[in-house]
Amino acid sequence: MDVRGEALIGGHVVASVARNLLSVALVVVVAVALGFRPHADVAHWLLAAGVLVLFVLALSSFAAAIGIAARTSEMAQGIAFLVSFLPYVSRFRRRAR
Hints:
mainly alpha, 3 helices, 97 residues
């Protein structure tokens, strides 16, 4: 059966988003079971879920693009690993004197 390359990459991205959403749902269920009681309304939860979906979709798509452009699988994995931690890096600023 002939399968287009775009379909394979798209399938990996969709599977990654689904896997991450399942992980987040599991974490929320466990947190509620342990006593977490959210004070946000349904609209705020849906907004947070939308932002999360867009972030995971962007990160997964970017990782897939790196995988296509990289020459080796090790290089693709290293770059994707590095990029996944970029949102957590903060800059230190000097105080103006």
